[in-house]
Amino acid sequence: MEELDRSRAFAKDVKRIVVKVGTAVVTGKGGRLALGRLGALCEQLAELNSDGFEVILVSSGAVGLGRQRLRYRQLVNSSFADLQKPQHELDGKACAGVGQSSLMAYYETMFDQLDVTAAQLLVNDSSFRDKEFRKQLNETVKSMLDLRVIPIFNENDAISTRRAPYQDSSGIFWDNDSLAALLALELKADLLILLSDVEGLYTGPPSDPNSKLIHTFIKEKHQDEITFGDKSRLGRGGMTAKVKAAVNAAYAGIPVIITSGYAAENIDKVLRGLRVGTLFHQDARLWAPITDSTARDMAVAARESSRKLQALSSEDRKQILYSIADALEANEKTIRAENELDVATAQEAGLEESLVARLVMTPAKISSLAASVRKLADMEDPIGRVLKKTEVADGLVLEKTSSPLGVLLIVFESRPDALVQIASLAIRSGNGLLLKGGKEARRSNAILHKVITDAIPETVGGKLIGLVTSREEIPDLLKLDDVIDLVIPRGSNKLVSQIKNTTKIPVLGHADGICHVYVDKACNVDMAKRIVSDAKLDYPAACNAMETLLVHKDLEQNAVLNELIFALQSNGVTLYGGPKASKILNLPEARSFNHEYCSKACTVEVVEDVYGAIDHIHRHGSAHTDCIVTEDPEVAELFLRQVDSAAVFHNASTRFSDGFRFGLGAEVGISTGRIHARGPVGVEGLLTTRWIMRGKGQVVDGDNGIAYTHQDIPIQA
Length: 717
Prior knowledge:
Strand content: 15-25%
Strand order of the largest sheet: 3-4-2-1-5-7-8-6
Radius of gyration: 34 Å
Distance between the termini: 60 Å
C-alpha cells in the first residue's frame, strides 16, 4: 500500500488541476488509440469533475494517431508496385490535422457516455505573446469550468509557424509538456499532473535495474545526477521535456507530479496525498538533504555542534529553548497538517487504537510541549555545576563538575511528542543528538525536527540534532563507539537486547512498562478505585500505565474486589485473570503475566498478602513503576523498601512516573537498568562529570615535594 507523503500535504487544498496526458499513454502499439487506458482516464476525470474539482486536460497523441491513420489509408490506396518503392515520411502537419479530429471525436464520445461536456481548444506559441489573447483565454476557461465543462488543450501543430515544430525548443512553449506548465501558470492551477508511460523520474533509464525512482525532485541535488533515456517513442518530448516543464512550473509556485498514466487510479492517489510518482515543488529542498551524509558525518557534525553549544553562555542556551517553544506554537498548523497524514496512514494500515493515539498531536499537546520546553529553560543550568570541591594541597584545588555526555543516539517509538522532549533535554544538557523515530510518525518527526533545528542559531548549527530517516542507517551508527557516547533505545525488551548485542556503545535501556498496582486489605476503597482507574485509563498506551492489578485476597470477601473490577469494566477496560482471579471473577485467563497491553486492557490477580504482591512483581514485572494502595504505614514501608523497581509509589498513580511530573522538565525515557541513571531520565541523566584542577606550579616529583591536605571546601551557592 502506498504511503501518505508529508511533502504532499498540499493535495488537500487542490481545486483546479491541469492534467497532461502524453502520446505514449494515449496510443498503444502501432500508434492506435489505447482505448482501455483513455477510457479509464476519462472516467477518472469525470469523477473529479462531479466531485467539484476544476479539471483542465492537455492531450498529446494527435500526430501519432494521424500518422497511423494516414499510413493505413496510404496502404489501402497503394498498388503492389507502389509498395515496392521507398516510402516517404509523412508530413507532420498533415498528421496533426487528421489525428486531432479523431482524438477529439474519441474524447467527446467517451465524455458523452459519462454525462460530461468537453471542449477543444487549439493554441499556438505565438498566441501567448498577445495580452488580449491571454485575457480572453482566462475568461473562456473560467466560463467553461463554471459550467462543469472540461477544456481539452493541444498545440495546433497543423498550422504552427514554428520552423521545426518537432525539434525546436525555443519560444513560449515547445511541446505539450511545456504547454501544460504554461497553462497551469496562466490559469492559476493548484496542481499540474504529467502522465507518462513510467512511474516517474528515475536516477537513470527506467529499464536499468540500478535506477531508482525519485520521489521528490530536488533541483540542487538531482539535476546533475540524472541520466535520461531516449525521447518518447511516439511524441516529441520524453522525460527530459517533462522534467524541464515540471521544474519551470514548480519553481513558479505550481506543485507538479510526474506519474504513470497506465495506472488508472494514480490521479486519485495524488489527490489523496499518497506517495506516487515524482513530486516537483519549490520547497523541496527544505524537505530532504541536498547532499547525502554518512552515519559518521552525522555523528561528527553533532559532536562539533555540541561543543559550540557548550561554549555559549547559560543565558544563550536558555534563549535557544525559548525560541524552540515559540516556534512550536507558531508552526502549530503546519505540524498538525503533517501529523494528520501520519494518523491517516496509521488508520488505513489498521494500527491499534492505542498506537494511533500515541501519534496524535492536538493543539493542547503542542501547547503543553512548548510549556515543558520553557520550564526546562527556566531550570538551573546543569552544565559546569561544581559538585565537589577539594583542597588537594596548599594552593592546589580540585573541582568535580557536571559535563555533557557528548553525542546521544536515541531510538524511540512512534510518538512525535517524544522528539520534542528529547531534543530539548539534549540542548539543555549540552549534548549532540541523533534521533530515529518510529516509521509511523515519519512526517510528524520530520516537521518537528525542521521546526526545532530552524530555531537553533547558526553559531551552533542545526546539525546539533540529526534525524535518522532509515532503519538501515542504525547498524552503521551502532558501530561508531568512537563518536557516539550513549544509546538510549525506547521500546521493547527485544529492541533493547538487539541493540545491546550489536554495539560497543553503552546502552541505557528503557524496556517494557509492566507496571503493577497492589491494593492492600487496609486500603481506602474510594482512593483505590481512583488510583486504579487513573493508572489504567489516563493514557492506556503510556509505558507507566497499569498493566496488572494485584488485589489482597481478603478484598474478595468484602466486595471491594468487585467494586474495583466494575470501575474498570464500566470504563471499557477488557480484563484478563490470573489463575486465581479468572476462577473467582469468571474472566478469560491471561496468556502471560509478562505482557504489556498498551491499551484499555489489563490483567487481574489475587495474592495472599503484601509479600505475595512483592514476589509477583519481582517475577513478572519490568522494574519500571509499581504502586501500593494502603492505609497501613508498616505495610507501605515494607513495599517501598523491598520492591526493586526504578520507581515505587505509595497511594499515588503509576502515571506520575514521568520526567515532567517529577519536575525534571522532560525525559528521554525511563531507564529500568541500574547503571548511570534509573527511572525517568531527565537532564541529570544525560550528564557525566569531569575534574578541573587549579594550581600554582605544583609538581608530583615522587610525592616528595608536596603535602597533601585533602580538605573539603564548601561550595558557594
